[in-house]
Specification:
alpha+beta, globular, 5-stranded mixed beta sheet, 565 residues
């Protein structure tokens, strides 16, 4: 049986394990608690049979504990299993009735925990006061408190599921349908592994050298050519048409050396650049034909079959990364370098051709942004397409402001005729929306920087008018696994693993990361005077009177200096 994404078939769950108490909470999609099993697990198997379970990090932990519950293990035995899993032991036994999906799987390279995500939402991130290392049976009050917090985490898991349904779970299930011969348990694999198995039945043959035509290779400077032919990593920076150009094994990047603000910028991006290169140069051998069919099918249905085209897009975009993954059947490092090198020389060639009649603003992995002096660029555009066999797509930016190639903002007219803003980079990435699965710290800074540079809006005005939205000002602090935890200025370790703080006006606490040797380490960029608030941000009364607006004002001013230089 494979998972069902029908909401009536879903059971969301979470497990907590103490020395003498173990319980599991099950909820339906409507967030109704269906059942809580505590220490006795008769009926668990009946409840889950025929259902799709959904948890957060359940593939690593909860599915295994649930298996022990179904097998009627005692709380003592379950606690031993719990400790083995947490210590890093790989436990492989999962009951055949457990069909599950995991909201944590492939969520983000940073692997945010559920509490970090809850904090990013601005939600309550308090944890039960009951210590997991408690050396006795829980009191009834402690048990009910623990269950309450567990139910809250299940609710947040449902929220994460909703966010990932269209862009992860549904495309994943679509991919599984493309190859019926995949093992029944393939749904537990990550999407890249599934994609590789859709394309291949056995590992590909590795290349001993990159494969490029002499014409292409000769487009690169000699030192870059030498790097690609003899090394596996490194970067080289060259200068051309007033750009500092960085060549590497991940892509080409450049930015204009003297100007940062531009108007009426044209951007030409290569459509499906890496996928087209994989097809045009037969990068994946016997799998190339099928890959090309998938590419053509995706183009055909892109605007008509949303779910299927997302699945096909996932396969297409997975392959380049799989060429660099030693665990994949597609592992072929020299082929990966070939794809990347081809993209770099072709973008460089486009930039060089355009530079005779345009000011090159920047070049990146799959496109060139430039300021045209005449309409001659349109002729160059078509000549480049005919020569190399790729398709370029045009965007027009009214205002374009860049700190460097990886940090910029631009205005454009969207399909509805409205003015829109595109942002990229650590200072401005979160301008338009909350970033739930990455870093959602001080989003007010991103908003203020963009509104100042694009609209000329006073920074202080932006700060003051948004104090009714406290989560925009938050710092989410978490000590890594090498630390004992987060502590206050007196060295007292907090019972919360993730904490939310704001810059405060008055003297407050200061949080640190506590090392095993007792030493305390500052959180980078965090304020000295901290307001600790782990309840829901919407319940923070009097925030405008307590927050230190000047702290954020000075932070924004410091960052703006690098944009206005």
């Amino acid at each position: 049986m494979r998972p069902s994404l029908n909401k009536d078939d879903l059971l969301f769950y979470d497990i907590e394990v103490f020395k003498e108490d173990t319980f599991v909470v099950f909820k339906n999609y409507e967030r109704e608690t269906l059942k809580v099993f505590h220490n006795t697990f008769e009926g668990v198997l009946e409840l889950i049979t025929g259902k799709t379970l959904c948890g957060f990090n359940n593939a690593f932990y909860d599915d295994h504990i649930l298996t022990a519950m179904i097998n009627q293990w005692t709380p003592y035995q379950i606690k031993q299993l719990n400790d083995r899993i947490i210590s890093g032991e790989k436990v492989k036994n999962i009951h055949s009735a457990i069909v599950s999906i995991d909201c944590f799987q492939e969520i983000d390279p940073s692997k945010p925990g559920l509490k970090k995500i809850e904090a990013n939402f601005g939600k309550m991130i308090k944890e039960s006061s009951v210590d997991f290392t408690i050396d006795r049976k829980l009191t009834e009050e402690e048990l009910q408190e623990s269950i309450k917090y567990c139910e809250y985490d299940v609710d947040m898991t449902i929220t994460v599921f909703d966010l990932r349904l269209d862009n992860y779970f549904q495309p994943k299930m679509q991919i599984l349908e493309m190859k019926k011969s995949l093992p029944e348990k393939a749904y537990r694999w990550n999407t890249t592994t599934i994609a590789a198995n859709v394309l291949l039945d056995k590992p590909t043959t590795k290349w001993s050298q990159i494969r490029m035509t002499d014409e292409m290779l000769d487009l690169a400077p000699d030192e870059v050519k030498e790097m690609w032919l003899t090394k596996d990593k490194g970067t080289i920076t060259t200068q051309d048409f007033d750009n500092d150009i960085t060549w590497a094994f991940g892509g080409l990047h450049s930015a204009h050396k003297h100007r940062t603000h531009f108007k009426n910028v044209v951007n030409l991006d290569v459509r499906s650049f890496h996928p087209s290169t994989i097809v045009n140069f037969d990068i994946i051998g016997i799998a190339t034909k099928l890959y090309n069919e998938i590419l053509e099918e995706r183009v055909r249905i892109k605007h008509t079959e949303k779910k299927k085209q997302e699945a096909l897009k996932l396969i297409l975009n997975s392959v380049y990364g799989l060429l660099k993954s030693k665990y994949s059947m597609l592992f072929n490092p020299k082929a990966s370098t070939t794809v990347c090198a081809i993209s770099q020389v072709l973008i460089y060639d486009l930039g060089k051709r355009l530079s005779s009649t345009c000011t090159i603003v920047q070049m990146n992995t799959d496109g060139v942004a430039f300021l045209p002096h005449t309409d001659d660029y349109k002729t160059i555009w078509k000549e480049w397409e005919e020569h190399w066999g790729y398709t370029l797509e045009e965007d027009i930016f009214h205002d374009f402001i860049q700190r460097d190639v990886n940090n910029y903002m631009a205005t454009y007219t969207d399909k509805k005729g409205n003015l829109a803003i595109k942002t990229k980079g650590g200072d401005v990435n979160n301008y338009a929306r909350d970033n739930y699965f990455k870093n959602n710290n001080t989003r007010i800074v991103d908003i203020a920087i963009v509104d100042y540079l694009i609209h000329g809006k006073d920074v202080l005005e932006t700060l003051i008018e948004n104090t009714d939205k406290p989560h925009l000002y938050q710092y989410v602090l978490k000590a890594g696994y090498t630390y004992e935890g987060t502590c206050d200025q007196d060295g007292n370790v907090l019972n919360t693993k993730v904490n939310r703080v704001f810059a405060g006006r008055e003297e407050g606490l200061t949080l640190y990361k506590k090392r095993p040797d007792g030493g305390m380490v500052r959180y980078a960029d965090a304020p000295d005077k901290m307001l600790l608030w782990n309840d829901d941000c919407k319940d923070f009364e009097g925030f405008a009177d307590k927050v230190d607006i000047n702290f954020y004002y000075q932070l924004i001013k410091r960052k703006l200096k690098s944009w206005e230089a």
